Amino acid sequence: AVRLGESSVHCYVSLGTLLKKDGRYEEAAPILIKAAERATENRWICNEMLDLGRLLRREGKYDEAVAILAKVIEIDPECVPAYDELYGVYITLEEYEKALKVCRKMAKNNPDDAYAYKMINNCCMHIESSARKDAGHLYKEAVKGTPEASREHIELGDSYMASLRMKEAERMYKKAIEVDPKSSKAHVCLGRLYFKNSRNEEAEAMHKKAIEIEPENSNTYIELGNLYLALLRKKEAERMYKKAIKVSPKNTRAYEALGGLYMSSSRAREAERVYRRAVKVNPDNSEAYVWLGEYFMKSGQEKEAERMFKKAIDVNPLDTVACIELCTFYKNSRMIKKVRQMYNKALEISPDDTGLIRNALGFYRRNMFVNECDLVLAKTKNKCPDEMWMHLELLHYYKRKGDSRNYERENNIIRKYYRGSSESEQNWFDAAVIANYREFVRKVRMKGVKMVCMQYPARSVKPLQEMLKEHEDVTFVSNEANFKEAIEKTCYWELFEDCFAGDFGHCTKEGNRLIAENLAEVIMREVVKQ
Q1: Where would I find the beta strands (DSSP E) of 36-115?
Q2: pLDDT tens for each residue of 31-65
Q3: Using one digit for the tens of pLDDT, what is the confidence trace for 243-255?
Q4: First to last CA, the chain
Q5: Calpha distance 23→230 (Å, rounded)
Q6: DSSP H or E segment with residue 235
Q7: Beta strand 452-454 with 475-477: parallel, antiparallel or unpaired?
């Protein structure tokens, strides 16, 4: 009917949708565009076109994605998801000026939507400082006087924090408090920032203010407890966690925090009582059974641990954390057959859970379960287009298959990623780790020992330097440039055995050689010669 040129708009849409569902995206695109051109009221076609644009982006067919997403925006200038997808394409291609134009067009057509201005700000983080300043001004104007202004400022502050732009983050959190002085979340965020900047008294004051604002919110007590724990003030942390449980007896986060405190303080029996109480007050909450199972694993009570993980899955078959923990238990017990069966079953129940997919793929690859590995990748390779671990798994998959074209495509994506900045939110350590690092460095320096701190492979050393900035005589070792250069010249899998951390993993002999040589060179240059 379409070939004869006598079909209705509905026929074009039906054919385009059919081709899309069949994975024939490039054929579907012109059909749906023609449908939109023929329709008198064509906004109803936009949903199909938008979905196709997303699929093309996931396939890495960026030119086709740009064409159809631009058409969606032309038809419906207020379609925020289309701008968002088109922005994502340009960011992936590192065409930041084009991404900025998309954001500005979105803001022009949606002047009351603060999200557009936040996108402008995020985009300008990749561009020169003058553009950043302009974006910040536009963003402030956008959120001024809106009911969600405080939340928007908090989100922008979080974005600055992830980029290690601490002064801008502090300014945004303070602005959130100025807009809404009763925002406990803004006070908590500012408290976290103060802690990371070693401004501990101010951090404590912010968390106490959050409790004053919302005394019936048990999470505010947990946050203050976390701060006390990070400062190694365990008795005060315990008191806060108990207070959180008193305020809200069914808040599972409080039981997790208190149980974790007891476990880290070698108070295993008390931890067990806390976890059992969590199960009692929340018998339908699978998380509580997982914590109890983890306690039994650490205590060497293997049968009880297995029983708790199974109970968690019985309570909530979709609890992938419980599934992963049970698989970990079986792996530790070298029950490989059961691990295989468990992952296969879990993927049937939760085929879209990225955490489960990632863990299962790693297990299948390490144990040479080729059929399962191929099947999972075939079904899921388009579900995580922005996740580096998926590109790394696909690189390994195409190499094994001898698919040189797709292997090179994935290798180019990976190399482009590592050419960019690694100053992301992944670089941030949690509060307990920060406190332990600082305390460790303090004790070592008190003994007159020269302190050398080394960052993970391919990661920026700046977060480590920021964490320990009060110690001027610490020597830092970066493994960013050497690993990025090696990845550019060879292949990720020549340096790493896995990708457990997302963009790096446990090193091969070659990776360990890079680390050892780099560390030896720094020690000889900056420690021995001094």
Answers
A1: none
A2: 777 776 665 555 667 777 787 788 778 777 888 88
A3: 999 999 989 889 9
A4: 82
A5: 50
A6: helix 234-247
A7: parallel
